[in-house]
Amino acid sequence: MDVPGKWKAYDCADYFQSPLADHGWWDEGGQYWYIEPAERVHESREQDFLIIGGPGVDGIRWGYRRGQPGIWAHYPIEAEFVLLAATAAALREGYASGAITV
Predict the structure, then answer these.
(1) 21: in domain
(2) What 3 state SS string does the chain have?
(3) Which residues of the chain fall below pLDDT 50?
(4) How many structural domains are present in the chain?
(5) What is the pTM of this model?
(6) Range of 59's domain?
(7) Residue 102 within a domain
């Protein structure tokens, strides 16, 4: 799938061109969407942040920052961003294996 025009300011082609855009990453055991399908992706305009999911704890969300590469975690309590992975697929693999933690 092509990156929708409204999201072109974000370096998010890796997500939209992967199966994650179609199917997301649903954890059956935890009953939680770690990565949302494309129709549920949304933007936080005040943070210039395209949110694709999150770990389900402490309000942490992950996604793309406007004009910056990679997948970032936003920690609202500390009001900070931390780079987690180069791509959405790398985030999924790393988080599932425990190599990436929040």
Answers:
(1) yes
(2) CCCCHHHCCCCCHHHHCCHHHHHCEEECCCCEEEECCHHHCEEEHHHCEEEEECCCCCCCEEEEECCCCCEEEEECCCCEEEEEECCHHHHHHHHHHCCCCC
(3) none
(4) 1
(5) 0.93
(6) 5-97
(7) no
